[in-house]
Amino acid sequence: MTRVLFWLALVFLVLFAIRSKIRGMQQRARAQQQQPSQPFTPPGRTRELPDAELMLCCAHCGVYYPASENVQAKGHDYCSHAHATL
Ligand SMILES: [Zn+2]
Asked: Is the pTM of this model over 0.70?
């Protein structure tokens, strides 16, 4: 008799776990439907990238480089002094 009760309790617990899992998935799907235009953002992060730096294209070699390393000559932007003098 105790074996039957044990198996009944086990089946009940498994069904309860499956049901709560399905309910959690439904709530997550509903929350995503309510905010479809919101792209995923990791927690603790903002949408802007404050550390992003403007990139420029070298007029000689075409390489993109940070604007802080820019060398301007003859009205053009270059990645290095060597390319600016060429
Ligand atoms: Zn260059």
From this structure: no
